[in-house]
Amino acid sequence: MRGAYVVIAVIAVVAVLLVIGVFNIIRSSFSGPEEQVAQPPAAEETESPGEEPAEETEEAVPEVDKTEVSVAIYNGSGVNGAGAEYSEAVESNGWTLAETTTYATPDTTSTVFYADPAHEDHATALAAELGIEQVEESAEFTSDLTAVITSDIAEQGPPGSEGGAAESEGEGAAVPDEGAGGEGAEGAQP
């Protein structure tokens, strides 16, 4: 009879361990499964003597004539002064600034839009200088290139700046601001 109790005790312990294991598996599958997947180790590059170094996988920024296009900066971030900061970066890098304005957008990813397919290289070069990753063709804007600055980069400012603007502004439609090409609200900063 004593042997039966031992068998029942062993089965009970195994059952409890199985329940705990199943519970942990289910719990871990609901808490960020992407974080639990191990990244494959990076392949190490070995170069033989006399061998050329491997090429970088990043595309090089195209060389363009910055005076061929006009650039508009649309501040859609809600961060006061971000448009002005990016406008200054555009002008200091040799681009022709057409206008700076505030812009209402639900987007949260900054984008450089180009109106003509011939300006795609210009848009790519401008995006690289401003720290913007997305470039798209669009007939929605009147300038050759339009950089829509949103919350993803507004507070950090353009590369090479000492941080960005930090005040939030109210939402509104596109309103021209003071600055190159803008004849709108006095004292407003995009």
UniProtKB/TrEMBL annotation:
Residues 33-66, 151-190 are annotated as: Disordered. Keywords: Membrane, Transmembrane, Transmembrane helix. Residues 44-62 have a biased composition (Acidic residues). Residues 33-43, 154-178 have a biased composition (Low complexity). Pfam families: LytR_C. The keyword Ribonucleoprotein does not apply. Residues 179-190 have a biased composition (Gly residues). The chain crosses the membrane at residues 6-26. Residues 68-152 form the LytR/CpsA/Psr regulator C-terminal domain. It comes from the Bacteria. InterPro entries: LytR/CpsA/Psr_C (IPR027381). This is LytR/CpsA/Psr regulator C-terminal domain-containing protein. It comes from Brevibacterium yomogidense.
